Amino acid sequence: GAAVAVAVMGSSGVAAAAGLYRYLRDFCGCHLSWSGAQLRLPDPLPRLRAEIRAAAPGRYRYYQNVCAQSYSFAWWDWARWEREIDWMALSGINLAPAFAGQEAVWQRVYRNLGLNQSEIDKYFTGPAFLAWNRMGNLRRWAGPLPPTWHLKQLYLQYRIVERMRSLGMTTVLPAFAGHVPQGILRVFPRVNATRLGRWSHFDCTYSCIYLLDPEDPMFQVIGTLFLKELTKEFGTDHVYSADTFNEMTPLSSDPAYLSRVSNAVFSSMTGADPKALWLMQGWLFQHQPDFWQPAQVRALLHGVPLGRMIVLDLFAESKPVYQWTESFYGQPFIWCMLHNFGGNHGLFGTVEAINHGPFAARRFPNSTMVGTGLVPEGIEQNDMVYELMNELGWRQEPLDLPSWVSRYAERRYGAPSAAAAGAWRLLLRSVYNCTGVCVNHNRSPLVRRPSLHMDTELWYNTSDVYEAWRLLLSAGAELGSSPTFLYDLVDVTRQAAQQLVSDYYLSIRQAFQSHALPELLTAGGVLVYDLLPELDSLLSSHSLFLLGRWLESARAMATSDREAEQYELNARNQVTLWGPSGNILDYANKQLGGLVLDYYAVRWSLFVSVLVESLNSGRPFHQDQFNQAVFQVERGFVYNKKRYPAVPAGDTMEISRKLFLKYYP
């Protein structure tokens, strides 16, 4: 066909890219997401009758959560980073962190300050846990970092900042928040540092990090040295991120102290870069509201000149902070959708909250809102919600969601289908429409350690998901060649299977409590020997649902067998035990082919056999004894040395249909 020139102009590379995606999306019916692209262009390309102008209502569209650096990006190579940055540009993202390689720079600074390598090795965590080392939560666990890790991350960071800036994005660099290795106390014995308390369920072996008193002269020295070194290496766009109190209680609630802390953090930024802007996560205010009363919040925010800090209202779709802080007491803020914790799988969204929240925040009295943001702890899940949020960042008013989602289905699969659109409208009104305070941790019994007190509560009607599953399968003949359709078929079938696991769990519990051995054997048998293996083979049929993909990408970062082993253990531990002894057990649960069969199913098998044994012997079931036994199973998986395929096997549609014929209620 004849080429059609469509002039797309923008105030920056990002604006032009976002304009291009808007043309592809709204005029060519294309779609781009983490799970695939649908880029069948009409021939000839549609001409625009008139100029289409779009201006975003806020200055910034922000993307990335500090935790995603570990839950999702930990093992990325340059090819994967490049894809993400291109997706960011097309989505209109213009402000984002560039956090890779900072440990290499810190190591240089620590060595210059006089620390030795073993003191540094006792500080850094392994690659899969660096997010929490950077926030002062965790040290040493799953470490140390090999020298080659630093080299590879430096290389990535050069490419990341170059690519982001070439597209007109503002990069956010890390700054010094006050956390220091214990070795600093050996080199500077008179320094005033305090040991913070334990984080989460870790003891002081791996947490209790030292926090340098912001008023100690060394605070400015270390902070400025680090930032000078970092900006000399990577250049700067003058925006820096630092979180001193992420999930850690400050040493004093005295407002004067809190003002001094934020002032010291900011001074160490301006010492290296007089134009510095501080980007801060607002997570702490809603995470520990008892400590952060209005006086404390105001003190921390007012330790920095107005306009020189931008606060991320990190969980604004469920627990907005701007409303009870008079719009952050005058500091600019970004309305962020957090949406996902731990990179869990599970269909979820708060579409009404995000469709109205940003507009309400702009209308708030004396609002200081300067943009919208996407800050999931893990990505590559629930594409629809992110596409919606990205579109809302450019809009002046809410969307008509049912008609939006019908168009979404057509763009995503590259062909109109009444069945697919119907399935999406059902999903929109059920799983994607959590209202009230919604915290999306996947608590399904499928991905949790079995007990007799498991949570099976849901925020939606399960029949809507079963019906959406039926509709998607019925569209298989027309849409089966679309990669995004097959991804969604796996995802919706997986959600249905997750619901079924809860039903079988309730039958198992009921049978045990009423001493009905035959019923217990039946329900337990179906769950352990059929449903979970079938779910595993479904997941194994799609490359994006493979455990092997996660593990092999970890191994690919290594330059020796020993590193490959360390990285693989990092990757396995993060999605299961999260710590040496199940400290944050199953927080980062995933539903992956290989993991369902060799981890979740083995746990359930043990649970069922212990219950059967209890009924047979007449001895009561003891949860704590079971926990000790099941911990060996969990640990056994982390160290099983089995290689999992990184290539899918089996026919997705066939497996989904087989599950459907057997289990559709």
From TrEMBL:
The answer on whether this UniProt entry bears the keyword Transmembrane helix reads: no
| EC number(s) stated in the UniProt entry for this protein | 3.2.1.50
Q: Where is the Alpha-N-acetylglucosaminidase tim-barrel domain?
A: 61-396
Report whether Signal shows up as a keyword of the record.
yes
Annotated GO biological processes are: system development
Q: Ranges for the Alpha-N-acetylglucosaminidase C-terminal domain?
A: 404-662
Residues covered by the Alpha-N-acetylglucosaminidase N-terminal domain: 5-46
Q: Which UniProt keywords apply?
A: Glycoprotein, Glycosidase, Hydrolase, Signal
Q: Which molecular-function annotation in GO is an example for this chain?
A: alpha-N-acetylglucosaminidase activity
Provide the reaction this enzyme catalyses: Hydrolysis of terminal non-reducing N-acetyl-D-glucosamine residues in N-acetyl-alpha-D-glucosaminides
Report the sequence similarity comment from the record: Belongs to the glycosyl hydrolase 89 family.
Query: Can you name this protein?
Result: Alpha-N-acetylglucosaminidase
Q: Give the organism's phylogenetic lineage.
A: Eukaryota, Metazoa, Chordata, Craniata, Vertebrata
